[in-house]
Design brief:
This protein has about 280 residues and is mainly beta. The protein has one helix and 22 strands. Strands 8, 9, 11, 12 and 13 form a five-stranded antiparallel β-sheet that branches. The protein has a five-stranded antiparallel β-sheet with strand order 16-15-17-18-20, with no helix packed on it. A three-stranded antiparallel β-sheet has the order 1-2-3, with no helix packed on it.
């Protein structure tokens, strides 16, 4: 079944920003029911790989009216690796890796406690995949041909491709207690106190709806300073700002958090923080 995710009357839209994207729903367990919620095991972006009986498939093409759908069967290749810190060479747990192919996002994975990751990708006759890697407290990196450790990679059938990725600490001046950067994954709660997803989350970036929003959680509060210099916001500014627990609108027609926006935050643990949106999209 196809879902017109952006409600424009067409069924063939593939985009990095999820609320501009359509979906395919597949009855993987054969129970005759379709799980159509975002994040469910049977709902996929049009460019995502799904497995039926251990065999990988993905949508090849969709006509705009949704009447004609082709599905491709492929073979798996495996991308494995380790994410480490530049200075100490220590493993980085919880690093978030987004893998993009010719037709958009092909998969996402998070490193384990030892900084390791592994993900199966669909081989497509030599498809080249680009990686974007981010972790709490480190600078994001994206594959480039001149990088020795993070070049675009080619996945071939039944082959394991190992890589080692190095991240540098995020540095910025004039902050209160240092500076950290992270990729805020759309659809997951994020906690500023710990730099982790889920536990004690301070906010939730809901990008799956027609009108996306940033929502405080567990008593956390936001104040929107707008597009100002990050370092100009002092502790005094944070202490005297007007905070709210209301959702912050972020739709294409009413976006209060475009790239460059600085937010003040009172976390769920009562700490002051400031947050700058460096990139607006499916992930922040």
């Amino acid at each position: 079944m196809l879902v017109d995710g952006n409600l424009n009357g067409l069924f063939d839209d593939v985009a990095r920003v999820s609320y501009l994207t359509d979906y395919v729903v597949v009855d993987l367990n054969g129970d005759g029911r379709l799980e159509t919620c975002i994040g469910c095991d049977e709902t996929f972006l049009l460019n995502q790989v799904f497995s039926v009986g251990g065999e990988p498939f993905k949508v090849g093409s969709v006509s705009p009216d949704g009447e004609l759908v082709t599905v491709q069967r492929g073979k798996w290749g495996v991308l494995t690796g380790t994410v480490e810190s530049f200075s100490a060479g220590l493993p980085i747990a919880g690093a978030h890796i987004v893998i993009e192919g010719e037709h958009g996002v092909a998969g996402e994975v998070v490193t384990d406690a030892n900084g390791n990751f592994a993900i199966s990708l669909l081989e497509g006759g030599g498809d080249v995949y680009r990686l974007t890697v981010g972790a709490w407290g480190y600078r994001n990196r994206t594959s480039r041909s001149e990088y020795q450790d993070l070049r675009p990679v080619t996945v071939t059938p039944d082959r394991i491709v190992p890589i080692r990725i190095v991240l540098e600490p995020a540095l910025c001046g004039g902050t209160i207690e240092g500076c950290r950067s992270a990729t805020i994954v759309g659809g997951y709660p994020f906690d500023l106190d710990t730099g982790t997803f889920f536990e004690g989350a301070d906010f939730f970036w809901d990008f799956w709806t027609t009108n996306p929003y940033l929502s405080p959680q567990n008593g956390a509060k936001f104040a929107v300073f707008g597009a100002v210099e990050y370092d100009s916001i002092t502790l005094e500014h944070l202490q005297t700002a007007v905070y709210s627990t209301k959702q912050i609108a972020a739709s294409t027609t009413n976006n209060l958090i475009p790239a460059g926006t600085v937010l003040g935050v009172i976390t769920s643990q009562g700490r002051y923080a400031k947050l700058r949106i460096d990139e607006y999209g499916r992930d922040l």
